[in-house]
Automatic annotation (TrEMBL):
The keyword Ribosomal protein does not apply. PROSITE patterns: UPF0001 (PS01211). This is Pyridoxal phosphate homeostasis protein. NCBIfam families: YggS family pyridoxal phosphate-dependent enzyme (TIGR00044). The modification N6-(pyridoxal phosphate)lysine is found at K38. GO terms for molecular function: pyridoxal phosphate binding. The lineage of its organism: Bacteria, Pseudomonadati, Pseudomonadota, Gammaproteobacteria, Oceanospirillales. Pyridoxal 5'-phosphate (PLP)-binding protein, which is involved in PLP homeostasis.
């Protein structure tokens, strides 16, 4: 992808988000763009940063650490870990990321808390919820969400910011909205239950369901392909 293409695709993603927010009668700054840069080279991230993008999502720990080293000079960059998280990778995530969206069990939460360096602020955490049980293997079930949230709220090095989901693909707007509406309602319930937690984030909405997600209150939409172009799937 050329520089001009990245600049155009980022501008187009921003316009799409702005149009969706306006159609939903929400404020222009009510949701932000998370640029999902997995499998993309560090110089593309640098270029997106030069175009004003600050928040980037990565799925693979080792790959992300290499890019972070290369991009250590970029001021104000915010790294989100959004991929499946195994126990043996929690230390690297606790030490090198600002956010984690994929916490779905106590054990992972406790390890992230214990491994978060004192010199850094608390790790910003979203709980990944399994909103389409048949198809997805990761994510906490709705009926176990409150007890996981309770565990995270009690951990001092973590800040419970909200919920994340990756719904199964759906063909119609109504079918896309249903699981996202459930996620929004689950966040509202947690806000009542844990008024002390800064529960302000709904990480939902990708290339195919961004408009549905914005209608249902998404505050952070995760776009990869739409910004950086198709991934070379042979790499993974
Ligand atoms: C890859 C990924 C995205 C972005 O997907 P695209 O189809 O490239 O827009 C968003 N969220 C998560 C959790 C991902 O793994």
């Amino acid at each position: 992808m050329t520089d001009t293409m990245l600049s155009e695709s980022l501008a187009s993603a921003r316009r799409r988000l702005a149009a969706a927010l306006s159609a939903a009668e929400r404020a222009p700054d009510a949701a932000r763009l998370l640029a999902v840069s997995k499998t993309k080279p560090a110089d593309m991230i640098r270029q997106a940063w030069q175009l004003g993008q600050r928040e980037f999502g990565e799925n693979y720990v080792q790959e992300a650490l290499e890019k972070q080293t290369e991009l250590a000079d970029l001021k104000g960059i915010v790294w989100h870990f959004i991929g499946p998280l195994q126990a043996n990778k929690t230390r690297a995530v606790a030490e090198h990321f600002d956010w984690v969206h994929s916490v779905d069990r106590d054990k992972i939460a406790r390890r992230l808390n214990d491994q978060r360096p004192e010199a850094l602020g608390p790790l910003e955490v979203c709980l990944q919820v399994n909103v389409s049980d048949e198809t997805s293997k990761s994510g906490v079930a709705f009926d176990e969400l409150e007890s996981l949230a309770q565990a995270v709220v009690s951990l001092p090095r973590l800040r419970l910011r909200g919920l994340m989901a990756i719904p199964a693909p759906a063909a119609t707007m109504a079918a896309q909205r249903a699981p996202l509406a459930r996620l929004r309602q689950a966040l509202e319930a947690l806000r009542k239950r844990f008024p002390e937690a800064p529960l302000d984030t709904l990480s939902m909405g990708m290339s195919d369901d961004l408009e549905a997600a914005i209608l249902e209150g998404a505050t952070l939409v995760r776009l990869g392909t739409a910004i950086f172009g198709a991934r070379d799937t042979s790499r993974r």
